[in-house]
Amino acid sequence: MAILSLAIKSLWARKITAILTVISIAAAVLLFVAVENLRQGARTSFERTISDTDVIVGARSSPINLVLYSVFQIGDPTNNVTWETYQDVKSRQDVDWVVPISLGDSHRGFRVVGTTPSYFKRYKYADSQTLSFQDGIVFEGLFDVVLGAQVARELEYSLNSKLTLAHGLGGTSFVNHDDLPFTVTGILKPTGTPVDRSVFVSLGAIEAIHLGWRNGMPTPLSRMSTANQLEERTFVPESITAMLIGATSRVQILGLQRDLNTYKAEPLQAVIPGVALSQLWNVVSLVERALALVSGFVIAVGLIGILTSILTSLNERRREMAILRAMGARGRHVVGLLVSEAALLAFTGSVLGLTALYGLMWVLRPFLETRFNISALSVWPSQFDLGVIIFVTATSAVLGLVPALIALKRSLSDGLTIRV
């Protein structure tokens, strides 16, 4: 205890150097734990994007591409699935429910998802959480639209706002459906998933706004019908982009997937979301490992900083060490003093870094959730953080043995002799 008290007083006597060293360790620990938390938070949010959907079906392509465009709204589908196939799949005994999805339009950079009202009941995320409305209700009329939370916030829409859709999935489109405006009837609560960036309309609306189109372009016939005339008609889609399927029993999932992958009427791709998400994460795991490696180097640089700080001060403290030995301090006391100083610097820096990190996380968490859809961040320290403190402190103490042994080997007279 006396050695620890002496170490604290010794550091306080060199407080400027000690404070700078503590700040460097705090910054290193903050960056290391922040990167790790963001990495884990991103992965957890990624894996929790869709839940309780047993199979996703689309036109034949790669499993990863199917998940990207149907769930994450990234990339384009290779083809569509016919409405007859959808009806056939829906009538299977091993299928409990099917939610169709139709893509191909956008609104000011946000993708439009044509679907049915069952989407808002069947689509689940995280731990089986269902979608809920912040304002309004699900679309009922042909030209009603439901907005994700991010769409409504960024574009400043509210209930009864008017908007028009554009043809194509890009941020800029030269073909707009400006003659058929939609009315906002519902705004969803934030989910931290791609749902927040989606614009939802009915399948009938997708067919109505493309009535009379040929080869992806409008014709003179496409503008002959007014919105009121279209609302009086019933539209049946010719095709859809993908289907979200729930099986009647989990034991039937693999059999259902195999049957759909060998579907004879048209080439289909059926994937199990959990498996496809794992494959997709493996594709980007190189970046994950690179982040972990960079974070490790940051900690290493901080620890080397402690070693450098103590080594640099050794020449200035040779007389101090010699006086301690002359007053009866044994070798283990000198070693204990320098090791304690290194450990104290590391411990103080680690605690300060974690305190600053979680203070920032508490403030920035809403921004990270809404802006980057990272919704699994903790604002309280975990066992991993405790392990980081122990590791940094213990490693710093071991590194402190280097200057301690150097100081121990120097003779008493070397420290007391005045050199000219």
Structural features, described:
The chain is of the alpha+beta class and 420 residues long. 52% of the residues lie in helices and 16% in strands. The protein contains 15 helices and 15 strands. It has helices spanning 2-13, 15-47, 63-70, 83-90, 119-122, 149-155, 203-209, 227-231, 253-261, 273-283, 285-314, 318-326, 331-372, 383-409, 412-416; strands at 55-59, 81-82, 95-107, 110-115, 124-125, 129-130, 133-136, 144-147, 162-163, 166-167, 182-188, 198-202, 239-240, 242-247, 268-271. Strands 1, 3, 4, 7, 8, 9, 10, 11, 12, 14 and 15 form an 11-stranded mixed beta sheet that branches. Strands 2-13 form a two-stranded antiparallel sheet. Strands 5-6 form a two-stranded antiparallel ribbon. α1 (2-13) packs across α13 (331-372), α11 runs antiparallel to α13 (331-372) and α13 (331-372) runs antiparallel to α14. The two termini are 38 Å apart. 36% of the residues are buried. The model has no long low-confidence stretch (mean pLDDT 84).
Characteristics of this structure?
two-stranded antiparallel ribbon; single chain; 15 helices; 16% strand; 11-stranded mixed sheet; 420 residues; elongated; alpha+beta
Task: Describe what is shown at a glance.
With 420 residues, the protein is of the alpha+beta class. The chain is built from 15 helices and 15 strands.
Outline the secondary-structure elements.
Blueprint: H1 2-13, H2 15-47, E1 55-59, H3 63-70, E2 81-82, H4 83-90, E3 95-107, E4 110-115, H5 119-122, E5 124-125, E6 129-130, E7 133-136, E8 144-147, H6 149-155, E9 162-163, E10 166-167, E11 182-188, E12 198-202, H7 203-209, H8 227-231, E13 239-240, E14 242-247, H9 253-261, E15 268-271, H10 273-283, H11 285-314, H12 318-326, H13 331-372, H14 383-409, H15 412-416
Parallel strand pairs: 4-12, 8-11
Antiparallel strand pairs: 1-14, 1-15, 2-13, 3-4, 3-10, 3-14, 5-6, 7-11, 8-12, 9-11
